[in-house]
Design a protein that fits this description.
The structure is a single chain. The chain has 177 residues and is mainly α. The chain is built from six helices and five strands. The strands form two sheets. The protein has a three-stranded antiparallel beta sheet with strand order 3-5-4. Strands 1-2 form a two-stranded antiparallel sheet. A hairpin with a 7-residue loop joins β4 and β5. α2 crosses α5 and α3 crosses α4. The longest helix has 23 residues. It starts with a strand and ends in a 9-residue tail after the last helix. The relative contact order is 0.09. The N terminus is likely disordered.
Length: 177
């Protein structure tokens, strides 16, 4: 079994360059999990390429999407909303602030908190983020019929539900062997 990955260091979007990489034998007991890992890695790589062109890194666009949709948010709320950790969110907000896409302002209801809000400059970025996500979707679903896209989405949602359910169980990731 091999995986197909773009050549390292190449312009990955639209390059068509593929290299076969052997799948480790140790992954033989989890072919679906290994496929998800490979897909997620490639998806993040392509997303990173598309987002870099507009001055963002993967994950920053998700913060912006939520701010555009929901308006100003406390940083703690963004952490929960995006299932992130406080340190990662702090770095993300700092970078977005340095780029001029968000600003902090005091919370009118909580003197200890500040609200993170999108700037006017970020609203021009929104169309570019939407275009990048559409382009990423086209890359991911190339050649799939609308029925196949719906089936893939349904399967991915079910896999996610399985993991959410497993995470909620008292044993969580401590699966007995």
């Amino acid at each position: 079994m091999t995986e197909s990955t773009p050549r390292a260091g190449s312009d990955l979007v639209g390059s068509g360059a593929e290299v076969s990489v052997p799948v480790p034998g140790a992954a033989g007991g989890g072919p679906l999990s290994h496929a998800i890992f490979r897909l997620a890695r490639l998806h993040r790589m392509f997303a990173g390429q598309l987002l870099r062109r507009i001055g963002l890194h993967p994950g920053q666009e998700l913060v912006m999407m939520h701010l555009w949709e929901l308006g100003p948010q406390r940083q703690a709320d963004l952490v929960r909303l995006l299932d992130s950790d406080a340190a990662t969110m702090t770095r993300t907000i700092q970078r977005l602030e340095q780029a001029g896409f968000v600003r902090r302002r005091p919370s009118p209801t909580d003197k200890r908190a500040s609200l993170i809000e999108p700037t006017t400059a970020s609203h021009a970025l929104r169309r570019e983020v939407e275009q990048s996500w559409s382009q990423l979707e086209d890359l991911v679903a190339a050649g799939l019929t609308s029925g196949e896209r719906a089936a893939a989405l349904s399967t991915l949602e079910r896999l996610e539900q399985n993991l959410v359910r497993a995470a909620a169980e008292p044993t969580g990731a401590d699966v007995e062997r």
